[in-house]
């Protein structure tokens, strides 16, 4: 099992809408994330900076190249693009984080 963490940026004032959309996450998206090897996925919000911190547990054979190409993921990105900082393809502007400590 691998651990993955990254940050994203919410557009200020969209905190409640972001939470609402994730409370109502599409079943087909949840299923896809599980099927591709994500067993845990948490997102935390730093309200002072509108920074989102995401943490995932990934299977050892998780292929990070698969999800960005999937139509459901592209549809989700388009759905979220009005409330987040994004790249040209609507993918969230994100920054990978380096693990510096882990306690099991």
Automatic annotation (TrEMBL):
Keyword Isomerase tagged: yes
Coiled-coil intervals, chain numbering: none
First-tier enzyme category under EC: isomerase
Keyword Cytoplasm: yes
An MF annotation (GO) of this entry: L-rhamnose mutarotase activity
E.C. code: 5.1.3.32
Protein keywords: Carbohydrate metabolism, Cytoplasm, Isomerase, Rhamnose metabolism
InterPro entries per record: Dimeric_a/b-barrel, L-rhamnose_mutarotase, Rham/fucose_mutarotase
Official protein name in the record: L-rhamnose mutarotase
Source organism: Maribacter confluentis
